[in-house]
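quick one, two chains, predict together pls
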Amino acid sequence: MERKTKVNAQDGKQDLTITREFDLPVELLFKAHAEPEIIEQVMTNPYTTAKLLKFEAKKHGSYQLESSDAQGKVVFSANGTIHEFKPNKKIIRTFEMENTPFGVQLEVYEFEALSDNSSKLNMHVIYESAAQRDEVLKLPFAQGISMAHDRLQEIVSKLK
Amino acid sequence: MNLRRDVFQAIADPTRRAILLLLTSQSMTAGAIASNFDTARPTVSKHLQILTECELLKQEQSGREIHYHLNPQKMKEIAAFIEPFRKMWDERFNKLETIMKQYKSK
């Protein structure tokens, strides 16, 4: 299978880049980052529902996102401020996961039209330190392990 | 290059990630590892074989038993940790693309 999304994280650096090409006009790619309802849809998964409590798509604006599980318990919250918001071109914002030790990251999104029907997103993410970047990188790996572990415990407790 | 892909394959599977987790605190025999899982013993052996082949695990003979332990050098390779991160973004972007394609046709 082709790897459409590329992550480049050099050893010892405190930043990384994420690039991805889309079969979408650049206007639609940008819209997916600018319309609260669409952002909520993208961030919602089978386990949690995402909600934007606040979303001001403009310079000096800010946003607040919350994800809740099926019981309505908030399991994830994040916020940030918007530093630049140029339609179909660029978004610069900060991102902070609340109640975590991961600090604040600076995110630069660049939107590029490749043709009438294809586009590219370049993300540059800068962390407070190289160590912090590596912690964030390991997060999905750790979550995968913890989910597998939870499932294991579930199975084991059923056996008892 | 082949080896790189093997590491990704190794950690793509939740059972194999759980095996790695089990072995973070101690080395264990195949039997002891398998007793933690609800899957058939040969399946666990297959997982152990894959993890050993890509050098995430090392085997150590002690008497008549073979103990498995983590190869910290290999685990430290950041490439192994990047793949789930990349996959998370890939899935998010795939979803975005699907949603926007529907949006376009509306």
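The helical segments of chain A are 26-31, 36-43, 130-159.
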